[in-house]
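Task 17 of the worksheet. Students: predict the tertiary structure of the chain below and write it out as structure tokens. Keep your answer in the requested format; marks are given for formatting as well as content.
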Amino acid sequence: MKNRKKSYLIDMDGVLVHGSMPLPGAAEFIQTLIEEKRKFLILTNNPLYTTRDLSHRFQMTGLNITEDRIYTSAMATAAFLHRQRPYGKAFVIGETGLTEAIHAIGYVQTSVEPDYVVLGETNTYSFEEVTKAIRLIMGGARFIATNPDATGPTESGIVPATGSMAALIEKATGKAPLFIGKPNPLMMRSALNHMDAHSEESIMIGDRMDTDILSGISSGLETILVLSGVTSKEDIEKYSYGPNYVFNSVADIIPSELD
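Model answer:
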């Protein structure tokens, strides 16, 4: 019996783009997936931007990726909240990518007796808001964070990201957050549900062993490591797990050969 076509979860930075520049072969790889009518989602731990914003950025760089093919840690966080406590209340620290996702599930965003404190990334962390978050958590609000990344890349260098701010809040409250984004399998399961795909028929493509590959393995997916991002071939041996496949970049991946 012929195998079904594999579906793909694809990391963004280091796999399809470097900053605002597309990587060689990325546009052709995406076009192949579209022409072969394969299910795929671009997966990012970055909760800053809405899917519409990200789609526009992709289109401007020549990547034909529509907003329905993008899934962020903000969306996974919102899906988790909706399953746990529908139509609840949350105190949210983040940009529009997160606040819009929380709004879309019918949550009230408030600092008055919220069920959750939800921490995401922002370009301007406010000491006043962080202080408020700490007091709310100590008062009983549950602590959720979109992703564990300690730093994020910008044109001028790295900046503190959600993981760093979460560590500060945890130190002050003594309460650790639940991180929703990679490598938590919650993110992967949520993404698979979003595109109506099964883990046994899906492949995760990423450039990081400790997030992309680990999350894929933890979720029962096959994994592809590309060497176009932060990981070198020598780095693979440092881990107690490994990817199913290693390619220099997505330009070398032929989906029909992996079915």
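Marker's comment: The mean pLDDT is 95. Residues 75-179 form a domain with the Rossmann fold fold (CATH 3.40.50.1000).
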